[in-house]
Amino acid sequence: MRSALSMILLAAALAACGSGKTPAAQPAPPTGGEPAAAPPTGGEEAAAPAEPKPAGPTKPVTNSSLAAIGLDPAALDRTADPCEDFFQFACGNWIKNTQIAPDKPLAMRSFVDIQDRNYEYEHEMLEKAMKDPGKDPLLQKLGAYYGACMDEASIEKAGLKPIQPMLAQVAKVKDAKSLSATVTYLQAQGVNALFGFGPTEDFVDATKVIANIDQGGLGLPDRDYYLKDDAKVKALRQAYTDYVTAVLVEAGHKPDVAKQEAADILALETEMAKVSKDRVAMRDPKGVYNKIDRDGVAKAMPHFDWNGFWKGVGLANVKDVTVTAPDFLTGVDALIVKTKPEVWRSYLTFHVVADSAPLLTKKLQDLNFKLEQAFTGQAEQKARWKRCIDSTDSSLGDVLGQVFVRDRFPGASKTAAEDQVKAISAAMSADIDSLPWMDAATKEKAHKKLQAMAYQIGYPSKWRTYSFKIGKNTYAANAMAGRKAETQRLIAKIGKPTDREDWQMSAPTVNAYYNPNQNKMVFPAGILQPPFYAVDHSIPANLGAMGMVVGHELTHGFDDQGAQFDDVGNMKDWWQPETQKQFKARTQCVVDQYSKYEIAGVKLNGALTQGENIADIGGIKLALNAYRTLRAPAKDTIVADGFTEDQQFFLAFGQAWCAKARPEYEQLLASVDPHSPARWRVNGTLSATPDFAKAFSCKIGAKLRPRNACVVW
Ligand SMILES: [Zn+2]
Q1: Ligand 1 centroid vs 8 CA: distance in angstroms?
Q2: Are 682 and 559 contained in the same domain?
Q3: In which domain, by residue range, is 314 found?
Q4: By Cβ atoms counted within 10 A, which residue in 63, 522, 628, 657 is the most buried?
């Protein structure tokens, strides 16, 4: 289920551009910097820690190699100084020797490479299911859906026919009442026109699901793209305006008319952007929870027919409603009054066609890709079969998930991930006890929250079923039926108890998330693969990569947002005032630290990325302590190509984030992604990790051993 807070992911979603609007964000990273002049501290000499460990018998050394424990020696740049730029040290040669695929905005050793392996498997499985599904009902369904998607001839023949009913509805808009009726109709189909709408847990009673009215209705990825005036943003705005014009021409409008319509649409969306909250404000739980209920919504936006809306979406008796941005509703209400009906018709026509562009003709998809290209720098569009896999995942996620798990998810990964969660949870418990800045009463509450934190690994406890019709030659109709069914499923949650077993990701997804309203972490099967996790990787390697991911999600329960929710997921202030002051000073330290970093000429937004950065810093610390505990009973200590176990752990972390992105894409992510780019996820995290400086004998004042490390947890 959705939350009014945007889902707290491990990394920005991988799937590109499913909405047919502007590119969805993908995981970030950067190109390598110049090799540092300082000599490497890795290798032989580093095997001996500079600062002697307190007491304890020395264990016998077993020699091994990086390759044998699951790390990539060829990725290293041994000319880089790990204390100045560990990202370069761990990944420099990988960056030098890796080309970004023409159909991708970035290359990455983890997310992108895992996704590629998933694609290969899914491609083979779906092609077979399409040609010869046999008797398996799951394969029959997948094959039928994927097969219709691959049938480009039928898609071309259908043209824009599949969306004619929606366009006919849009043509009826002539005043506020008919605008309301049309928006209602589109929302029931799953088209988020004018505003966003869906279920959310009630922040003050998370056992209940209520309705949420969100801001929305923009075609560009963020309000800033309408409001900023630097040359790059202006160029992107022009690319968008050209796209809008071309889409309307495809919809049958005359070119000169379409051009004027595009200008009107941009002006209208700019007004909507002005009354939208920015991304930092959208991360504030207290700010996005405004339970003004049905009456309050009607008062905030009186020129919209809300009674008609609730009835039209099947919630005639709804009462409990929260609003993300009340000023947005007021602002849009004023726009309803002053905008001419023909501008609304143009706006809705464009959004209906653009929303469905990936389901329609090659011409529309090419136009969509041209816009995507302006934001990502990609040279080529994804192959058709990959787009059809994305679509299958989006419409039939749990059918695809069942087959994926059956074929590709060994039970051992699930057990190992459970063990990691337990070890990391124990590390957090010890960490809470050791915090000098936290008082006893707050510690007790923190322990309570930690103990109540749920985790779900691999796949959901029950699979969703899908009953929408899948026709042989009717791809667009199939996908739209899938979208409508999913919208109905979400709407049906409103007014019911929270379902903690429901997942917001399909099992093959290469990602993870934490839901503060359910105090729950989810790790889909997709992410439990190398380089994050493998049965034959060593404990330091698995914990440095996957363990850090687990620690990251767990720390989300205690980041600047998570800290505002209690053990059962209710927004509640469980902190003693003095401890809270200390916590805020520490999180501010993280904000300031990351605000100094830059990517592709753009400064990082330390306020936007603070939750993810806190989770990274906490995650690495918890994973480190967990790996040490797990290795404590071992009779020997393993040295791999001269690297100690601590060093192996940090290398595993660094190498899980080896990445290289196109500059256009780095700029996009710097504006919209709450995660820092890969280079800073590694270097920023390690600058705040004193144990890293110890492991690599970094001198005080080195970039990754600053005088004041920003440690929150
Ligand atoms: Zn995260």
Answers
A1: 5
A2: yes
A3: 192-354
A4: 657
